């Protein structure tokens, strides 16, 4: 059973991905702000702890919920609850990231989908770059899009798929149109190998 810790400083949580989708982060801010106004934010954070792996030296590495943590950081929230899912404290530092990747717990790719060295991984959640394709994947999920899945970094895989078909200018000038196009793209057979793809009624 995972160990739940309260009062974990957000500044001490290390990212395991290089980017977040800032449009998706803003959506989280809107929802979290409503919870704060209703007085239910603390209870929500306790129910939704940030899953972490403990690395060498006892450092906490987020293995999910990066958008939640970025939103909290922007809101000025300094601490949250964490759930310890993996203990990798016995690994030598030079072996840590290789094991994280082997376990599917990190995503060392930049906003253009290019692999980067582990040394380029941000040290703080606010250092993660903006990836509009990742935001697009979040907004294309559900409804006529793809299903939510437990596959690690599934929305980054969809982001890479959408990047092949859509021009950045569309994302910058007509966000709603970009979402509609992305949802149509989820229905193509070209997306069949992606996590969350729904086969029924898809286009050829």
Break the fold down into its secondary structure elements and pairings:
Blueprint: E1 3-9, E2 13-14, E3 19-20, H1 22-38, H2 41-47, E4 50-54, E5 60-62, H3 66-75, E6 79-87, H4 93-102, E7 129-130, H5 132-140, H6 154-163, H7 168-173, H8 175-185
Parallel strand pairs: 2-5, 3-7, 4-6
Antiparallel strand pairs: 1-6, 4-5
Average of pLDDT: 94
Number of domains: 2
Low-confidence segments, ≥5 residues, pLDDT <50? none
Q: Which CATH class of the largest domain? A: Alpha Beta
Largest sheet: 5 strands, mixed
Number of strands: 7
- Helix percent reads 25-40%
Principal-axes geometry comes out as: globular
Helix and strand composition category: alpha/beta
> What is the name of the CATH topology of the largest domain?
Conserved hypothetical protein from pyrococcus furiosus pfu- 392566-001, ParB domain
Major β-sheet strand ordering: 1-6-4-5-2
Number of helices: 8
Order of helices and strands: EEEHHEEHEHEHHHH
- The radius of gyration computed from the alpha-carbon positions, rounded to a whole number of angstroms, is 18 Å
Task: Determine the strand fraction and express it as a percent band.
Answer: 5-15%
């Amino acid at each position: 059973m995972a160990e739940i810790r309260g009062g974990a400083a957000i500044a001490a949580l290390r990212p395991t991905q290089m980017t977040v989708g800032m449009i998706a982060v803003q959506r989280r801010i809107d929802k979290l702000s409503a919870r704060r106004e209703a007085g239910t934010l603390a209870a929500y954070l306790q129910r939704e702890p940030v899953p972490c792996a403990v690395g060498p030296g006892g450092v906490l590495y987020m293995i999910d919920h990066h958008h939640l943590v970025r939103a909290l950081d922007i809101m000025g929230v300094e601490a949250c609850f964490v759930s310890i899912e993996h203990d990798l404290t016995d690994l030598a530092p030079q072996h840590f990231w290789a094991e994280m990747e082997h376990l599917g717990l990190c995503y060392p790719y930049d906003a253009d989908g290019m692999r980067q060295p582990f040394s380029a991984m941000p040290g703080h959640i606010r250092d993660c770059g903006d990836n509009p394709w990742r935001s697009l994947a979040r907004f294309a999920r559900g409804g006529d899009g793809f299903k939510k899945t437990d596959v690690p970094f599934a929305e980054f895989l969809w982001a890479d798929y959408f990047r092949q078909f859509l021009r950045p200018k569309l994302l910058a000038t007509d966000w709603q149109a970009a979402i509609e196009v992305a949802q149509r793209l989820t229905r193509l057979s070209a997306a069949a190998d992606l996590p969350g793809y729904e086969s029924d009624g898809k286009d050829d």
